[in-house]
């Protein structure tokens, strides 16, 4: 019984440390993102998940430029929806996400004004 209590205390400490670390980063910018691939266009979940993973990877590589454009202590919630009808390559997804981020940077620029 004491053993499980010790584990819980350790996990509480670890989760507090994680929150503190993420809190430092999120204190300057609050940026949340979501991805969607319609089931109507891609019946197989394998294809939907692949496209979602490609979108997430492209976002991960390009989000730093958006974070730099955001004013301090400003946030943004972004939701990207894939609207194509065929499986894309990573380069196609990368180009589309990069274009979207460029548009979001112009929006972020108007927020700071």
From TrEMBL:
Chain spans, region Disordered: 1-29
Pfam family, one: Ribonuclease_P
Keywords annotated in UniProt: Endonuclease, Hydrolase, Nuclease, RNA-binding, tRNA processing
Comp. bias intervals (Basic and acidic residues): 1-11, 18-27
SUPFAM superfamilies: Ribosomal protein S5 domain 2-like (SSF54211)
This protein's name: Uncharacterized protein
Biological source species: Nemorincola caseinilytica
């Amino acid at each position: 019984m004491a053993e499980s209590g010790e584990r819980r205390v350790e996990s509480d400490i670890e989760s507090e440390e994680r929150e503190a670390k993420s809190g430092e980063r999120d204190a300057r910018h609050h940026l949340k993102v979501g991805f969607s691939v319609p089931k109507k266009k891609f019946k197989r979940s394998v294809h939907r998940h692949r496209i979602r993973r490609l979108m997430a990877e492209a976002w991960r590589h390009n989000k730093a430029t958006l974070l730099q454009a955001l004013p301090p202590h400003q946030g943004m919630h972004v939701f990207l929806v894939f609207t194509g009808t065929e499986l894309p390559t990573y380069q196609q997804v990368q180009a589309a996400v990069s274009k979207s981020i460029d548009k979001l940077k112009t929006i972020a620029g108007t927020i700071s004004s």
